[in-house]
Amino acid sequence: MNLRSLIPSRATRRAALGLFGLVALWELAARGLELPAYVLPSVSSILQAIADQRVMLFAAARITLMEAVFGFFLGTLVGVALAVVLTMVPSIRKLALPTATALNSVPVVAYAPLILLWFGIGPESKIVMVSLAVGFTVFLHALAGLDRVDQRAIDLMRSFGADRAAILWRLRIPAAIPLTAAGMRVSTVRAMIVAIVTEMLGATGGLGWTIYQAVLQIDFVQVWSAIFVASAASLIFFSIVNTLEKRYVFWK
Amino acid sequence: MSTAAASIRPAALTVLRGAAAIVLMGLAWEAIVLLFSVNPYYLPRLSVILTSITTVPDAYIAGFMRTLSETLLGFTFGVVVGVFNGVMFHRSRLLKELIFPIFIISQTIPVIAFGAVVVLWFGNTILAKALIAFYLTFFPVTVNTLNGLEAVDPRQVDLLRSFGASRMKLLFQLQLPAALPQIFVALRLACTLSLLGAIAGEWFGDTVGLGVLLLQAMYNENVVALWATILVSGLLGTSFYGLVAWAEHKIVFWKAEL
Predict the structure, then answer these.
(1) Residues of chain B found within 8 Å of residue A39, distances taken between Cβ atoms
(2) Which of A56, A148, B67, B207 is 20 to 30 Å from A140 by CA-CA measure?
(3) Are B109 and A14 within 8 A, CB to CB?
(4) Which residues have a Cβ under 8 Å from the Cβ of B171 and sit 6 or more positions away?
(5) B93 falls in which pLDDT band (50, 70, 90)?
(6) How much is the pLDDT for B83?
(7) Is B40 helix (H, G, I), strand (E, B) or coil?
(8) Residue A103 CB burial class (10 angstroms; 0-12, 13-18, ≥19)
(9) Do the beta carbons of residue B92 and residue B223 sit within 8 Å?
(10) Does B233 touch chain A (CB under 8 A)?
(11) Are B233 and B195 in contact (CB under 8 A)?
(12) Is A168 helix (H, G, I), strand (E, B) or coil?
């Protein structure tokens, strides 16, 4: 079992092949057709730019990752807490659920200018935006998970004299964790994207800010290298959460 | 006829209840701002915002229509391509294993960063914004189409095949209808995402659209206009979502049995 997992599966090999093919095609197109850098720079020149500017890009990625991770945890905390409160107190639910749905019907980026005005252009506004985006997703997932328990199991526990808190702790929360974790997993990439989008509207640093500056200076190799770094950072963030989920949410 | 009337009534009731909730929320908003005398820089009164929309509705109507057309274009495009991809990936394992990972990576790329590049490629046209909306929508539709198709009972496929059904017939008579509930889940997600893409896409130097109005309001620190645009975006998002949910209810009428 252990040995077999070391050999890449056919799917992994094909994925690598597909990715390699795309990169080769890109490089060939950019070089063969002699596309100007503002249309499509070659992959090699982007990688070269990343290597040259690694200190600056790394610092920018660190800022963005910090904002994304902070916002991610804050949003998860608020989302789960809200879902638990709503499950515990059904009377609030009737009021809060339509409010949440209405707030959620506005695309989250539409709040970005408002949040920037309220919280300034520092990292705070990005953390708030990320936690807003993550919070909604986690909240909806957690709520669905808390609701997903078998009514007969609740009745059984009640017949043994369990109160609401006991049912929540022993039945609802274990049942809700897999779905909540799935919501968190989906939110990782969104957290990064929202952090970057908000940075582009106004910031003091970060990958979004780097991209915005590069667009203004019409430096498209720089735009692409920041995109590459952002994508890599998102993938790392995603795989960490994904691995943690696989390890700790084993009963799924 | 009576069954139709019976199915309309609960739907009308849901709409009515929703409208009542919205009115209540609006009243609560107004009351909270008045009672606690909230700083209008943070939250202006709802009536002030609504008045600002009705006094100069032209910009909001123009922005609404522009963003709507970008959203619809990107959405339609994304749904067609997504369903097509799903069917292709279902047909060919090789294609799926080659291309699907690239799609996954493509979704980690911040859209708006791509926006700068897309606008450069296609110029400041409606197409560029629709493309960003498309970029956000095709992936969930692909994933859910694929999941839906893979969940089709193989015995049903065998049965139809034993009657000599062609692949096309199999696809349109069995597999796609069976995948529809799953596809609609993605469509509901996609309508929010396509609107997001359209609004973010407009931030790259457009002149009309809700995204433009948002930016202008931010630069002028005009909180009332900002809230007004947020409300209009919400209206657009809710009606689009409602329409898709309604279509789901009409088309996937058998879902309740599952």
Answers:
(1) 120-121
(2) B67
(3) no
(4) B87
(5) confident
(6) 93
(7) coil
(8) middle
(9) no
(10) yes
(11) yes
(12) helix
Tell me: the pLDDT tens digits for A42-54?
A: 888 899 999 998 8
Locus of tokens 């779905």: A179
Above 70 in pLDDT, residue A4?
no
Q: What is the dihedral of CA B2, B3, B4, B7, to 10 degrees?
A: 120
Token pair, residue A59, equals 């610092």
Q: Domains of chain A (ranges plus CATH)? A: 41-248 (1.10.3720.10)
In the block, tokens 């970029």 appear at B135
What tokens appear for A26 in the block? Answer: 């890109």
Joined tokens for residue A80: 């789960």
Residue B102 sits at the chain A interface (C-beta within 8 Å):
yes
Best residue of A106, A199, A231 to probe chain B, by most B CBs closer than 10 Å: A106
Q: What is the ipTM of this complex?
A: 0.79
Distance from CA of A160 to the nearest CA of B (A): 32
d(CA A115, CA A156): 47
Is B199 in Cβ contact with A107 (below 8 Å)? yes
B 62-101 → A contacts, CB under 8 A: 94, 97-101
- Domains of chain B by residue range: 57-257
Best probe of the B interface among A92, A137, A193, by most B CBs < 10 A, is A193
> Contact B218/A118, CB-based, under 8 Å?
no
* Closest residue, chain A, to B103 (C-alpha): A19
CA distance A145 to chain B (A): 17
Q: Residue B9: what residue type?
A: R
CATH architecture designation of domain B57-257: Orthogonal Bundle (1.10)
Return d(Cα B225, Cα B213) in angstroms, integer.
Answer: 8
